[in-house]
Amino acid sequence: MDPHLVTALNGPLLELEKNVVEATPSIERWFRLEWQDHTPPFYCSVDLRNAGFKLAPVDTNLFPGGFNNLSAEMVPLAVQATMAAIEKYCPDAKNLLLVPENHTRNTYYLQNLARLIKLMRMAGLNVRLGSISEEITGPTELSLPDGSVHVIEPLIRINNGRRVGLPDFNPCTILLNNDLSSGSPAILNEVYEQSLLPPLHAGWTIRRKSNHFAAYDDVVRRFAKLIGVDPWIINPFFNHCSEINFAAREGEECLAANVNSVLVKIRRKYREYGIKEKPFVIVKADAGTYGMGIMTVTDASEITGLNRKQRNKMSVVKEGLEVSDVIIQEGVHSFERVDNAVAEPVVYMIDRYVVGGFYRVHDQRSEIENLNAPGAHFVPLAFSHPHALPDKAAEPGTAVPNRFYMYGVVARLALLAASIELERTDPEMAAI
Amino acid sequence: MDPHLVTALNGPLLELEKNVVEATPSIERWFRLEWQDHTPPFYCSVDLRNAGFKLAPVDTNLFPGGFNNLSAEMVPLAVQATMAAIEKYCPDAKNLLLVPENHTRNTYYLQNLARLIKLMRMAGLNVRLGSISEEITGPTELSLPDGSVHVIEPLIRINNGRRVGLPDFNPCTILLNNDLSSGSPAILNEVYEQSLLPPLHAGWTIRRKSNHFAAYDDVVRRFAKLIGVDPWIINPFFNHCSEINFAAREGEECLAANVNSVLVKIRRKYREYGIKEKPFVIVKADAGTYGMGIMTVTDASEITGLNRKQRNKMSVVKEGLEVSDVIIQEGVHSFERVDNAVAEPVVYMIDRYVVGGFYRVHDQRSEIENLNAPGAHFVPLAFSHPHALPDKAAEPGTAVPNRFYMYGVVARLALLAASIELERTDPEMAAI
């Protein structure tokens, strides 16, 4: 089952794969040295788009759900990576408090939760669930799809308010699997004695995609020099507009101008590489997730011509978070196919390690559209393939492990960018 | 393909599996704390024997070959563990010098070498091969079974003799895959600036199995208390005799007395648990490997009745190393079967992580004999099984992942014992 090789790689991407596979030891050493200076987020998933001539991350999620979509073969890898992560934060940790999303009635999300609890348990932690949802006012039973029953209860402050925990449960680590789209709750403020992972400023009320891709720019510039490729091959152009109000039609000039400037840059690159595809950009909320507030645009005139329905769709994202900052990102075609439907690879990492991935597949969407939408399904990526090692001898573009390795490398560049982004946006660092 | 479940577990081992699976978080935390105090060997393989009522390590190899026998699915796990190990010794390492066994004409060994080179390369290291064999006097081409061609050359001292390397190759780490049965070569003495892994005193001219099992006694005593089981369930009795000369029939009294005392202790335990099997002991060289110099004994009288051929067989092991120290170890039946042949699990670890394993299978041997002998073949253990996580809800003794987890735990106890053994026997520590 290797659906992804349906996509033929061409020109620049073939070259990239060749360079990446050839340079494996230097690449791994480069990452090792980077991780001396930067701490990876606890976990992370990265959406990639493979256009055949270009491979780029388009979204980096610091509160990944969907661990249930990874193949079961990858579980030992995830456990091992979790052990490495925990050892860094709390080597003598016994207890981990997991804070899930508020919508705990979604079966898929509960499957994710069950998988996460098992991973943490295997890594040597007692896991309990703490909620920041207003609906959870006391201990509430939660039956998970794997048959296990857990109790979820409201977070409380313990140890004279110095720490966060549950009654009779004093965790060393608080792991957020809630992206804080509904705001950062007061109870999580001023947590100094415990590891709060990821930190509050990774939540979508504070985080901005444009900060992430600015950090990614810097990471890619250095990486591209290391292996000798054009950074554009793995990096989408982007611009950014603030003070947008879609409903009130404010900021349209900024948007239109930036859409145009990104399109001009893409056209120039397409000419350079002789690419015949039609350039497009993705306009999306600079904060927020869940595939909401996303638009595919092929011409700046589309921005000024938005109808009311389209404007409404763009103006709010998950949990009613209002959109005022917008990122205009080079669109990357997704020419990968699973059973003839458009597919994009999603790579999962824990600590600095790739622990699996899957294809997000959508048979109602085209190769220039966002696939993170209702109707998508998931096909595990065979990262632990029988021939999981890159093969230097293979013809570029023909070997599964080589392509997966390249996916893992690009996803880790986004991971590194996330860690640099979080350093740069850390409010406590700014205060010093 | 789950051949191992042919062995029904009974009484004490069912109890062990139950306790181990139940206590997963405490066990993993316990190991995590142990690894704060002790550094695991770079790599290690452990031979286990499963008697249904008892599960015990019988040999702990610090220079494991046979990496080629691990399933390809386990490769990413091994790479990840290698990264963790390297980071500890040489975070900015570029170069690793691998010192293979001297018998580089054995195809199976060359497959092992090819696998090791790939693992190291994937972990971000340039690998070159250095030899301590007298037969390698200059750069010699070595064609590996995977089609790659490497050059093996004699080790030299570089940097004014302060370091070990090759011409134009200055490694940070020197990884021995040569157990030094033929002695510790002078060129490896006084290596202070580089990581020599494992250290010279892990080589068979210095190492003693009895030191290992003494350390294992201590580890198991503490672990058994943690999970509330009789330590004997995972620990074979042993005694030790020195100044043995099989050829000259010296030391036979010591041997016979100790064989008897171990048999008496086993009988007592068998009575306690109502075990009907016939007790036996394994008499083997206290130093050395390769399944040489090993004897199964069921009565002390067999020792004094050895004929010349048997005495000759016991008196030397690999590379002609003479046997003067002998360990008398409780025999553990191997009631596991693969295709009706006796099988024993071998678990591989890199750093502190289980990275795979296989069954060593021998259809010409009985369940009370050593299986590490010509004619053995290997069946990968499905450590990365579709349901690789232990399942608390499963009926004890019925679930593959639960049994594999138990194997991994016991193997890691032996790994921990090895690290304590190496601390205790470190000549530099003794000098302080």
Automatic annotation (TrEMBL), chains A, B:
Its EC number is 6.3.2.2. Keywords: Ligase. InterPro entries: GshA, GshA_N. GO terms for molecular function: glutamate-cysteine ligase activity. It is an enzyme of class 6 (ligase). This is Glutamate--cysteine ligase. It comes from Oxalobacter vibrioformis. The gene is gshA.
